């Protein structure tokens, strides 16, 4: 194992040196001016990422960016629990593990109506339109379904939610910071993301973007004490959190979003799209089949590539493939829940270099060969290289 460790899991993703070093500063109080300055930097950078993730950097929304001391699941719960109560109806769209998580959260706090298709399949927009009624308070949806590598049609569902005056809560955990995301154009009221995904910051904190429309309807009294959105919004005006902040993680997040702003979202989106195309082209040329079944307005992800494991390394035989990947000092992910042994997933979120993407393709090809599945490694790498140009 001579080559450096390469982390290709769909989060956490590799950190830049600047982001890592930011965690190694002397401690300060979370009520100090120094910390407030850090939080403000993080908020400014997050506001840039949430509202200017367009191909021309045009702003697409106004609101407040909150940082939470917890991963994005906390943000998902904050959104649902503050915008719905036991009497409200939440329509939850499910076509993968994280859509399911939203449904389970909604089930704890409200009456939930799921709109569900098989994991990896596209939604039927007519079924979604039928499910959202004038009685629906909130619609939840995952933009980039990390468990299946599908990019779901947020714009279309946002329009349906707006027609019925329901609030639209979107999990953009593996799209925001890596792909296009349009708050106003898509009718998004609350957007959620995690630090350790396309923002390329360390795990442990998450970010929630709250529009005026959502803030006006939030009721913190009905939410868990730690997730009272109104309280978080009040404190955010002073660049503080209601409770003790995870100071080193906020510092790292502030650096990470400033790095994104320096690259610029248009260039970053373009780079992520090229790298995802390279993974797709490389795996195709190795003879592999994509896993998700993208159709209609649903597309394959530009940040997470999910691929079906071929005959010979599927089910109980998958271990030989994953062992051979590990032997090459590379980390990638298998499938979650019932997709274990059926698929593998790689991420291109963050700041991967072209060489790292090509190493990912080469590693998969060589690991297949080691596990007894014939794959033309050089053809895979050449196809990926072509797509990177
Ligand atoms: C789409 C999506 N939503 C939400 C999450 C939140 O997970 P966690 O709270 O464990 O970071 C993840 C993490 O993988 C995700 O990929």
UniProtKB/TrEMBL annotation:
Pfam families: Aminotran_5 (PF00266). Residues 65-335 form the Aminotransferase class V domain. GO terms for molecular function: transaminase activity. The keyword Transferase applies. Keywords: Aminotransferase, Pyridoxal phosphate, Transferase. It comes from the Archaea. The keyword Transferase applies. Its cofactor is pyridoxal 5'-phosphate. InterPro entries: Aminotrans_V_dom (IPR000192), PyrdxlP-dep_Trfase (IPR015424), PyrdxlP-dep_Trfase_major (IPR015421), PyrdxlP-dep_Trfase_small (IPR015422), SP_NH2Trfase/AEP_transaminase (IPR024169). Belongs to the class-V pyridoxal-phosphate-dependent aminotransferase family. This is Pyridoxal-phosphate-dependent aminotransferase family protein.
């Amino acid at each position: 194992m001579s080559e450096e460790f390469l982390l290709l899991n769909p989060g956490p993703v590799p950190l830049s040196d600047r982001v890592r070093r930011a965690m190694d500063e002397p401690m300060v109080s979370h009520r100090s001016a120094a910390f407030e300055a850090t939080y403000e930097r993080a908020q400014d950078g997050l506001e840039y990422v949430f509202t200017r993730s367009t191909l021309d950097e045009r702003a697409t929304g106004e609101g407040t960016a909150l940082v939470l001391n917890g991963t994005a699941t906390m943000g998902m719960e904050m959104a649902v629990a503050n915008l719905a109560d036991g009497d409200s109806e939440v329509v939850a769209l499910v076509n993968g593990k994280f859509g399911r998580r939203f449904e389970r959260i909604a089930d704890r706090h409200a009456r939930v109506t799921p709109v569900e298709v098989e994991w990896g399949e596209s939604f039927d927009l007519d079924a979604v339109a039928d499910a959202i009624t004038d009685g629906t308070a909130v619609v939840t949806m995952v933009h980039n379904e990390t468990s299946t590598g599908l990019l779901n049609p947020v714009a279309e569902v946002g329009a349906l939610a707006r027609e019925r005056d329901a609030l639209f809560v979107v999990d953009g955990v593996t799209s925001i910071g890596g792909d296009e995301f349009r708050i106003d154009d898509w009718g998004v009221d609350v957007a959620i993301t995690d630090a350790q995904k396309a923002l390329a910051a360390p795990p442990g904190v998450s970010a929630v973007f709250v529009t005026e429309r959502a803030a006006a309807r939030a009721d913190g009294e009905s939410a868990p004490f730690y997730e009272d959105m109104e309280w978080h919004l009040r404190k955010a005006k002073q660049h503080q959190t209601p409770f003790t902040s995870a100071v080193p993680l906020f510092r790292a997040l502030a650096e990470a979003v400033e790095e994104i702003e320096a690259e610029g979202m248009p260039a970053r989106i373009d780079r992520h799209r090229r790298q995802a195309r390279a993974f797709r082209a490389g795996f195709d040329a190795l003879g592999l089949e994509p896993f998700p079944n993208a159709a209609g307005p649903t597309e394959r992800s530009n940040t997470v590539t999910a691929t079906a494991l071929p005959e010979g390394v599927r089910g109980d035989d998958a271990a030989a493939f994953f062992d051979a990947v590990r032997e090459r000092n590379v980390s990638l992910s298998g499938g979650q829940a019932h997709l274990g042994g059926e698929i593998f997933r790689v991420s291109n979120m963050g700041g991967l270099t072209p060489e790292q993407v090509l190493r990912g393709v080469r590693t998969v090809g060589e690991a297949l060969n080691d596990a007894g599945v014939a794959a033309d490694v050089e053809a895979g790498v050449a196809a990926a290289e072509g797509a990177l140009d």
